[in-house]
Design goal:
By secondary structure, the chain is of the alpha+beta class. It contains three helices and seven strands. α2 runs antiparallel to α3.
């Protein structure tokens, strides 16, 4: 039986939120004139004090809520940023408190916004994909970084 057909499955959605990195130069250094180096990208990770973990922004769906709408709502609630959705990424399935949980993810470009700490999320970090892989608490979340990079995000690494 597909977990999506099981009414005990906790349904959630989220995004791997990204933005163009300000610069790949070392702090305090400037790029040389005429440099064609791509700025790369940064991923947003959220810290949840309840679990003391680092993850991608995500959360449970409200009854009747479409997964993509829930993912964008959760990004806004947890990070303070609007998000422009891109490609759907792999769905992650695991047990949470003894119940099956299914989280659908999308790649999403960060739009305007500003972070404000809350009881649910007290910090965010914008990290390179490599640093994000290291900081993520759950190995299952690291595979989403690779999935995002495989989508060839427009504007990332010189893509248009």
């Amino acid at each position: 039986m597909n977990p999506a057909d099981d009414d005990t499955t906790v349904r959630a959605a989220g995004c791997v939120l990204w933005r163009p990195a300000p610069s790949t130069a070392s702090p305090g250094l400037t790029a040389s004139p005429g440099s064609t180096a791509s700025p790369g990208l940064e991923l947003c990770l959220v810290h949840r004090p309840k679990y003391d973990d680092w993850s991608h922004p995500k959360g449970k769906l409200k009854p009747g809520e479409a997964p993509l709408a829930g993912a964008l709502r959760e990004v806004a609630e947890e990070t303070g940023y609007a998000a422009e959705p891109g490609a759907e990424l792999p769905t992650v399935r695991y047990l949470a408190n003894g119940r099956p949980k299914e989280v659908r993810y999308w790649a999403a470009a960060a739009g305007p916004g500003a972070f404000a700490p809350s009881d649910e999320v007290d910090r965010i970090l914008w990290l390179s994909p490599e640093a994000a892989r290291t900081r993520l608490t759950q190995p299952r979340d690291r595979t989403l970084v690779d999935a995002l990079l495989a989508t060839r995000v427009p504007g990332a690494f010189g893509e248009t």
